[in-house]
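@channel sequence for tomorrow's demo:
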Amino acid sequence: MAIKRALFSWSSSVLAVRLSRHSASLIPRHPRHLTSSSRHLLLSRMLSPLMPHLHQQMFPPQYLDSNGYPIAYAHPGPPLASMSSMTLNNLTMKAVRVHRFGGPDVLQVDTNVPVPEVGDDQVLVRVIYAGVNPVETYIREGQYSRLPELPYTPGSDAAGYVQQLGRNVTTLKVGDRVFVSGNSSNSSNSGSYSQYVVSDGTYVFPLHPRLSFAQGASLGVPFFTAYKALILRAETKPGETVLIHGASGAVGTAAVQIARALGAIVVGTAGTKEGMDVVSKCGAHHVFNHNHKSYDKKMVEHLGTGFDVIIEHLANINLGHDVQMLNEKARVMIVGCRGAVNINPRHLMGPEASVRGVALGSSTPPEWAQMGAAIVAGIEAGWVSPVINKEYTMDQVAQVHHDIVHSKGAKGKLVLRVADD
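structure tokens (generated this afternoon):
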């Protein structure tokens, strides 16, 4: 009985202190000032600290879920990020911010960035890992067709737990393991180099437990780009011969896995022995070193045929050779290019071949849903297995932006570790 009285006295005092700043009417600090019914009501509320009507007074509406609970408490799964960096009136988080365009040194880690608000069709995800993509370095430098307003948080790909759902999102629930792929002109991704990211529900997908969060953060741009290039744009068919240039990188390894699962004959190139081993493990039937002299001729001689589909990551270097290795009705898919290139169009005329561009950011929501469904199915079936090259901490964000552009011999995906699982 004495313990119960002590607990009641302590809880009454705490409640009075917490509500004194958020309510017009103060609650008495000592139990002797309360009636029996008031004591019972107050005790029941204190023993249920997440009562929605109390939190509606303490937190701004944008930080409450559909049941009136604050988002920082809504997660039923593994421990949440500490509330120590969050205030009652303005929840904040740790995030990488860019305040001016420039080199990797403009990336800075801020600790008081507001947690983004969640719209009716959006999902708030607590980020464990964020994926790093080359396009993010172009945006950071200010060398991209669509630039964000400053300051901004980089990144579109992430993996973590659902923290809060907009009222119109019905395909997920709070606590689900998910991956985010929001690199679309139609999305409103808030930036994944952060403790929390908001994305439209269209770009958030369940993450099967067979993949780690680091692998989940590697799915977005690489696998969606590879799928769009091979399936939506090239319309690759089983039995066709597919060449994937730079197959040891993040998009390349994804393309190898997708093409192999489709039933194509897969040929990949890499620049190092280690990279070639990665390509082989991903399922390529034949692997060549693109740093060797006349490797393109050696590929055609070895196969005894040209290619039906080519996935090209460096068109300014390779396209002139690509167009000389084409079968009838072949398709060259331009996924990456870092400069101008001259080609002889006659090489396209005879086989009636075509060169096509691929821009993941131009994908429509229905296309995104189709790509996501296929990739989720591939994860469940076991043939989607992202390759992780190296992990970095948030404080090493400048280094990962340097490495993704300048490191030689790609061997998979680079990721940022944002939090511990």
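heads up for whoever presents: Confidence is low (pLDDT under 50) at residues 1-34, 39-58, 71-89.
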